[in-house]
Amino acid sequence: MIPDYQSLMRPVLESARNEPRKISDVVEEISDRLQLSDEERQQMLPSGKQTTIANRIHWSRSYMKQAGLVRNIRRGWFELTERGKLVLNDPTITLDAKYLEQFDEFQEFKSRSKETDLDATERTTSETPANTPDESLQAAHKKLDAALAANLLDFVRTASPVFFENLIVDLFIAMGYGGTSEDAGRALGQSGDNGVDGVIDQDPLGVDQIYLQAKRYGPANSVGSGDIRNFYGALSIKKATKGIFVTTSHFTAAAEQTAKDLGSRIVLIDGPQLAKLMIKYNIGCRDKDVLHIKQIDEGYFDEAAD
Q1: Residue 195 has what DSSP assignment?
Q2: Measured between alpha carbons, how far is residue 268 from residues 145, 208, 215, 284 in Å?
Q3: In terms of CB atoms within 10 Å, which of 115, 152, 176, 190 comes out highest?
């Protein structure tokens, strides 16, 4: 289990007891000391840009730097201050964010954070001490996306069948199917066409086509194996090689197994996956705010740290 960033503060101090250390080496050393599994070492933040263990160790160092326990000496390197050595040599000290609050430098850092609205992040972190600010921010983003996905499905379920079929076509056009052709995708109307609700070109010339089936069901309903077999039959009539079955609800286990047994011709997209795709490709939603998350460019300050 990966410790929270506060539990990693003392190990980070210990790693630099005798000499300055490179933070990337410390990440590997502490991972070895904790006997983290390969899976734990490779566990990523939701952003996919940094491992969890590296993120927590970096934040441990960052908070201790703000409290005057360590200082950065050049890009990616740090060493203990006299204050840090005193703390390290006192095993009775419970080293965590609360302990750091006694230092004026840390209080000043917190005051600066409040002025830039980071106090909300800090409150979240204090409520869930296992989270770094990065993790708290990304967890909040995940909650917003989950709420948006639920609302999107509610709107789709209350729309007309024709609107839903056109929405599915719009989504696949946004995903890049059909190239730039204006007729790359089209719904076939309320009555459908032999069990098919829409068709979309897989290539700009329309040489290969994908047929769509769209079921606008409530969350209590589900798509069964019979629906899959019927769609398969419709594909066979059209001599189609590929089909996509989309629903706002979910597929039964029997339906999923039927699709597998019929080969790779039919791809299933359930409600949660549909909502994720709509969010990713801005179908029925749009960007409200864009947050740019910055980090220190330590290379810029190399000369200043020498």
Answers
A1: S
A2: 22, 19, 11, 21
A3: 152
pLDDT digits (tens, 9 = 90+) for 234-256: 888 888 878 999 999 999 999 99
3-state DSSP call for residue 72? strand
C-alpha dist (Å) from residue 146 to 149, 160, 172: 5, 24, 22
Q: How far is residue 55 from each of residues 3, 60, 107, 218, 292, measured CA to CA in Å?
A: 11, 9, 23, 41, 18
* Coil/strand/helix, residue 63: helix
Query: At which residue do the structure tokens 């059909």 appear?
Result: 178
- What gap in Å lies between CA 231 and CA 218, rounded to an integer? 20
Quick check: 281 pLDDT over 50?
yes
Nearest Cα residue to 103 out of 64, 142, 55, 133: 64
CB-neighbour burial class of residue 138 (10 A; exposed 0-12, middle 13-18, buried 19+): middle
What gap in Å lies between CA 246 and CA 283, rounded to an integer? 15
Nearest to 163 by CA among 262, 284, 264: 284
Nearest-CA neighbor of 11 among 45, 55, 60? 60
pLDDT band for position 118 (cuts 50, 70, 90): very low
